[in-house]
Design goal:
Elements: H1 5-17, H2 24-45, H3 58-67
Helix pairs in contact: 1-2
């Protein structure tokens, strides 16, 4: 999560919330990458409640914490 979703999420958040100026090419690339990573996550969760096993693990907590802001 910290090496895939987070790096492309920051430019999107900066632009959407007005935290900093983000150049349009960087925004578009980051948004496209973020969508790809979220699709992978959604596909990994199909038919499942938790990322790993049958109960909540630290993996679920880390991903949820990372996705609170953009979603």
């Amino acid at each position: 999560c910290n090496t895939t979703i987070m790096p492309c999420m920051y430019p999107v958040l900066k632009a959407v919330f007005g935290w900093a100026e983000v150049q349009e090419p960087e925004y578009k690339t980051s948004l496209a990458d973020l969508k790809k990573h979220i699709k992978v996550l959604v596909n990994a969760l199909k038919g499942k409640t938790w990322l790993v096993g049958d109960s909540m693990t630290i993996a679920d907590v880390v991903v949820a914490a990372a996705l609170i802001m953009p979603f």
